[in-house]
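Case study.
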Amino acid sequence: MRLSRLFVPTLREDPAEAEIASHRLLLRGGFVRQVMSGVYTILPFGLRTMRKIETIVREEMDAAGSIELRMPMILPADPWRATGRYDLYGETLFKLTDRHDRDLILGPTQEEVVALMAAADMPSYRDLPKNVYQVEWKYRDEFRPRFGLLRVREFLMKDAYSIDRDEDGMRESYRIMYEAYERIYARCGVDYVIVEADPGQIGGGVNHEFMARATVGEDLFVECEHGDYLADTEAARPMVPEPAGEGTEPLTEIHTPDTPTIEALATLLGVDASTTLKCVMFDVGGKTVAVLVPGDREVNVNKLEKLVFPEKVRPLDDDDFTTRGFAKGYVGPQGFDDSVTIFADLTVRGGRDWVTGSNQVDRHVTGANEGRDFRVDRWEDVVEFREGDRCPIDGGALRIGRSIVVGHIYQLGTKYSEPLGARFVDEDGSERPFMMGSYGIGFGRIMATTVEQRHDDAGMVWPKVLAPFEVVVVLATRDHEGAVAEAERIYVELRERAVDVVIDDREQSAGVKFADADLIGYPVQVVVGKRGVEAGTVDLKLRATGDKTQAPLADAASAVVDLLATAP
Amino acid sequence: MRLSRLFVPTLREDPAEAEIASHRLLLRGGFVRQVMSGVYTILPFGLRTMRKIETIVREEMDAAGSIELRMPMILPADPWRATGRYDLYGETLFKLTDRHDRDLILGPTQEEVVALMAAADMPSYRDLPKNVYQVEWKYRDEFRPRFGLLRVREFLMKDAYSIDRDEDGMRESYRIMYEAYERIYARCGVDYVIVEADPGQIGGGVNHEFMARATVGEDLFVECEHGDYLADTEAARPMVPEPAGEGTEPLTEIHTPDTPTIEALATLLGVDASTTLKCVMFDVGGKTVAVLVPGDREVNVNKLEKLVFPEKVRPLDDDDFTTRGFAKGYVGPQGFDDSVTIFADLTVRGGRDWVTGSNQVDRHVTGANEGRDFRVDRWEDVVEFREGDRCPIDGGALRIGRSIVVGHIYQLGTKYSEPLGARFVDEDGSERPFMMGSYGIGFGRIMATTVEQRHDDAGMVWPKVLAPFEVVVVLATRDHEGAVAEAERIYVELRERAVDVVIDDREQSAGVKFADADLIGYPVQVVVGKRGVEAGTVDLKLRATGDKTQAPLADAASAVVDLLATAP
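After joint prediction, the assembly is written out as follows.
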């Protein structure tokens, strides 16, 4: 291809609206243009890179036995009402009515369509298992689109759906997709981790996020410094400390005026907050629950909710403290009767001789010990993760990683098939709901993530599998007949060798062409200029390292092929 | 590929909702499924055929120098308001508002996006000409979707846009696309005609429709029996008759009670309606216009509107007849003063001694002749086309053809760039609006049209370029080891020869497999059964002709390749 006949509008200046590198560079490199907030035109170079991602994804999905089809983007609202997602998604769902006043939506995912299709066209267990996928645009009305292609309202996604007879089948289909995803991200050259995650609005049980490391990422995860532990921040379970053993101090009441907070208490007593015991009070389905954590830690309400599901969790309010007879700010677990269930986080085992509330205003106790002074009904993991916690596997330091979620896979079970009445006839003649899974990959996010992970001050640094072109032949001067002829010859020779090559034959200065080649980030640059041609050489540059070499004019194509083989 | 691992839900019965062959067969063959009115899921076989169309279109667009990109499907409403299309499309446009109450639409075409993109990123005449295209889904809220994939609300289209400096450039870009379209339809094997057409809601000037012949088509065109003339029914200009010369009869008033219509008049007098002169009265921009046509013909108001554009045309109503003093049902052109402009269709030249109104109720005249008895201010082509009219080129009989429009190309001029202020700086430093063209091809329509043009009682008859697979190997029995082994061997050998082949290895009866092979319409069928294998042969069938032959087992793959070469 010839740049003179393409449409790659590079920009000399950084666009003011771009907050992060990928946004800035994809705009500057002429890969995308915004049409309105969170909605972009994908320009020819962006499209070439997206297509390369698409090809990798399609090859791996096909190899994994998934079958490609294509579902609509405008969908009837009723099935979404049946599954509850119409309300659950709320304003994130683009809603519209047609000319006959029927409610429609723009699909963010397609579980409902797939369940109904299975019900109609996979009537028997003999039709199962099936796995279908599509590559299609998706819609989410984000409140505040930002970060270029990272948080958008229209995005290209590969979404796959597995349809199985039973749970074992679903788990096997899930495993196959999990492994296909590993191959996809490896082939795309993405630096990523896999984390078990929260199901969110898709719902269901087991699910994993594929998180590409990125300093600008909004999605946090927890990892061990030694790389042997990964978790969602909501799900991280730090190592349980060694039990501290029996206490040695007597239980003693002390006067602590105006200390309803741990901070005030620790300051007054001149002790570390970690030596105090925090007793946080909740209403769980109408009953009182006390949760004990060390004074320097927080309760993770999400973990508590999972422990008591399906009961609802609510912190006690001021009225509750009054009517239930607890001294707010001075509550301790001593003397709670059976009407209070006492949860203690596992970290509480690591302490003894606690300072905690005395259940009277302006008074605390010291020397409180589990067993002797208070009981624990349930030892659980209910603490909020904190940087520096120890890894549950090898005790290494846990830290927060920032990432961009580039894929999410879900075991859905019958969450969609059941409310939609999507059933098949099993071998024994009984009707059963399909067991489903769903599997998504966002292409724009892979493109943007790759730029985040691979760029420098001069521009993007594409791995060759995703670069819009692998090689650029830069014709540095159009005024020198020999240079033009040699550049054309090398370009043609590279094409004959099936190299993915573009020639920069635009009427632009050499400086603009060099800057654009670095900005766009072709893995290999070949510069054909007057001086080189007169000396019988061309200049080669490997974008990833910046290393420059020279090759004899006659062997230029071979030298490019060799250099390309070394490119990441 | 193996049918056992695909998803091709064929149906034994005709779906009740299918009115035409393509709808019925695409449903029965498992190519598509309706999700809601006018909105379909494209199943794997439908997708394979659509992709083959897409590949042909992409190759020809690329070869013609068009550059692929991808524009959004949700679009801001404001540019559509600026060009007037927001109102013009009316209810056909899917409209929605986002969570911040901004008006959006689902794009039916993308002229506005392209014009604004050109304004932003093609600032100079040096950036021109450009031609960009995309393959993307489009939206039209049809009042009554029907005929399967022919009238739908969501459809896949290749839409291209040319952007030029001036009218010569636009015409050249248009010519290049016109020729690319000819190659595309020829390669797809579509039987089509090209007709200059009405610009409709896209607007602009010269435009052509590519019309695939189909008995079920809703789009009519006019063609000469000798094939040398084609026209849109609105634009057809029949041959002008030889002038009849001067009249011979005197102008005579006759009593014709209760004859306000041509029919009543002709019956009363016992003459042919073609010997009477109809005088149809219009208001054109506040002035009175009389249009004369032979009594057996109708005025084509569309033609009249084009003749008097930008004035508005309106037939006179009863009040107008009263206030302007015309005797409704008895109007004749004799004695009209300058306040009435008299148009006569060219066919009026072919008659003389007309029977026409006398301008008094219940009275007509005979022997009315142009020149002597009435004047004509403008001779024009304003008559409605009628089957049997003569061809303007060779006088052959004109007839109505039925078709499905599978492509439409437009010279837009500055219709979009002007209202959107989309301008570039020309060589002389002046700012000029872009001259644009737009070019659309509907893929679903090509798929459905091909089925309409190529099917029989047993099913579809795909040309090999568009078939979901070119060859099916039908394993007639799974109980015979030799047959299974031979079918697998032939399948593998065909794959090695790069034949686009599928093996029907499903657990189904031979009868079902034969019926499905005919229904789906693979160009070549290879049947491997017990009897044949024991006799050392396979059965081959060419779907297009139904011809059956046998080939030795050992040479089966070669025989298939040879037979496929003869398939349409």
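Observations recorded in class. Residues 211 and 405 of chain A are 4 Å apart (CA to CA). The longest strand of chain A covers residues 398-413. We will return to this complex in the next lecture.
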